[in-house]
Amino acid sequence: MVSEPQATHGPLEKPPSTAILCNTCGNVCKGEVLRVQNKYFHLQCFVCKACGCDLAEGGFFVRQGEYICTRDYQTLYGTRCFSCDQFIEGEVVSALGRTYHPDCFVCATCRLPFPPGDRVTFNGKECVCQKCSLPKSAGTSVHLSQGLWSCGGCGAEIKNGQSLVALDKHWHLGCFKCKTCGKQLNAEYISK
């Protein structure tokens, strides 16, 4: 479990008969102590498990019961953007098994970020936006209302946004077949 709990410190108020022990060194806590969730620490004992830096004043994460500073947590467990290789904090876009910052997930043709909710087309090599995936020759694929397309194979509307772009047409994935033998093709074997 990973979390970013809050640490509070101040004078220890406890009943005189109950000794509070430091979670790190095991010695009795007296005076200024730090409490994280239900554990107590001497201020000097609350340090990053990876680098030993002071965690009393900065942010930290807890992973498998160990306290780790933000920098080391990112280095050890963080997710990097496939495009810019920087760590991702906050909102993330996942596509084709890769993760991106929202502003880094861009159309391969126009280099603009994909608008939220817009259809993204994977052409076998890269992702392109709805506008850039328009067929080059006007008569080869029929444009339907509200940005939908008809399939180059069966002619039916492509509703769920998943399509293959090949031969200047949009295709349902199962409709892109060899004209000669009828075998279904995929992007790995396409050649004119």
UniProtKB/TrEMBL annotation:
GO biological process: lamellipodium assembly
A single MF term (Gene Ontology): metal ion binding
Matching Pfam families: LIM (PF00412)
SUPFAM superfamilies: Glucocorticoid receptor-like (DNA-binding domain)
LIM zinc-binding domain location: 20-79, 80-139, 149-192
PANTHER family: ACTIN-BINDING LIM PROTEIN, ACTIN-BINDING LIM PROTEIN 2
Record's protein name: Actin-binding LIM protein 2
